[in-house]
Amino acid sequence: xxxxxxxxxxxxxxxxxxxxxxxxxxxxxxxxxxxxxxxxxxxxxxxxxxxxxxxxxxxxxxxxxxxxxxxxxxxxxxxxxxxxxxxxxxxxxxxxxxxxxxxxxxxxxxxxxxxxxxxxxxxxxxxxxxxxxxxxxxxxxxxxxxxxxxxxxxxxxxxxxxxxxxxxxxxxxxxxxxxxxxxxxxxxxxxxxxxxxxxxxxxxxxxxxxxxxxxxxxxxxxxxxxxxxxxxxx
Length: 234
Known about the structure:
Oligomer: single chain
Structural class: alpha/beta
Strand order of the largest sheet: 5-4-1-6-7-8
Largest sheet: 6 strands, parallel
């Protein structure tokens, strides 16, 4: 678990032999992994315990991105229920017990990381707590691609869209912000990239992309419809 997978060389690697970026930073939920069902079922368990009706997976997906506290607050507000004081603790207890029940990498993520790893530095920046992030990365054999370059929402830096976590990863990698690509499925990731002076890449396949304000897309930024499309953006 957590080891870099070894595969035969692919033609994709030669296509990015001289990439425009030195650092590629990924969001987790909705970008590297499809965690929507586990998040939705966990949130709905807490909603049901308070007497509310469950939300659809799609509805929960649109609430994800700003951290667990915001997710559960949105879920209770949408259900028309007062939020119990311990609602966040209830949610985290349920979710932490089922992080990998249905969560999987999106198709193409592993070959994408295999192609990128020899060419650029890779990192993860998520608003999910670090312990849960680490368990998911380990469980899906992704951890080896990122090493210690993983920041969660409960770390020393304010959560996205504040740029400080991304700036810390950029400084650690010793690269210019202009040669850093932030890949994510929500406007939160996009605004984080802009605030840090990096280039944003919208992962339009992710569940957070629904309702993305397309007016914010600027020339020079990237949009992809599947993970492997990223190779053509570098």
